[in-house]
Amino acid sequence: MFDLANGRPLNFKKWIEENSHKLVPPVNNAQVWTDSDFMITVVGSPNERNDFHDNPTEEFFYQLKGNASAILWKDGKFDRVVFEEGDIFLMPPHQQHSPQRPEEGSLCLVIERKRPVGELDAVSWFCGACGNLIKRYEMDLDDITKDLPPVYEAFYETSQAERTCSKCGEIHPGRDYPAWHKQLANGKSPA
Predict the structure, then answer these.
(1) Distance of CA 123 to the CA centre of its chain
(2) Torsion angle defined by CA atoms of residues 133, 136, 142 and 147, in that order, rounded to the nearest 10 degrees
(3) Which of 20, 55, 126, 191 ranks highest by number of CB atoms within 10 Å?
(4) pTM score > 0.70 for this model?
(5) Residue 139 in contact with residue 121, Cβ under 8 Å?
(6) pLDDT class for 188, splitting at 50, 70, 90?
């Protein structure tokens, strides 16, 4: 038998069952292979958030189980795309998005390319009331499950003054994502 770099085929359902303990808050993600040209990740639920990921490469989504959505941000405006069970979606590079998985038991397969050298990912937080940028962090992303949590914590540790919108004066609620979603619902956005 040939020695294959990423091993022989694996039973995906069994892999999900064996890694289900990783598919819960606070991270909700598990990477299938860590040493390939692709970042193949399963994302669990429940998970609602208020940060936006800016990926320099495309992202492929396959909604395996349940339903989810992604809030998109562009030019100070929000929109929402809905993923129903069985849907696939190809997110363009640099489309800032905030996946929302409030439905218990929801599962999504996400496939991304490893980042080309010098291409940075970013995580941003926007004012839910007016869509203005509050804070943006850029980073080399190698392992989603390890590299993103410290960025979230850095933002959550910022002061109220640092989270005050320079455009409308609204204070971003930080870790309190339900309060941010309330701001979004009360704002001018269709999301």
Answers:
(1) 9
(2) -110
(3) 126
(4) yes
(5) yes
(6) low
Counting residues of the chain whose pLDDT is more than 70, the rounded percentage is: 97
CB 108 within 8 A of CB 63: yes
Beta partners for residue 112, in sequence order:
39, 59
Q: What is the pLDDT of residues 98-128, one digit of tens each?
A: 999 999 999 999 999 999 889 999 999 999 9
Q: Cβ atoms within 10 A of the Cβ of 186, count? A: 11
Among 31, 6, 18, CA closest to 147: 31
**Residues 6 or more apart from 143 whose CB is under 8 A from it?**
31, 34
Residue 78, classed as helix, strand or coil, is strand
Tell me the two tokens of residue 77. 């405006």
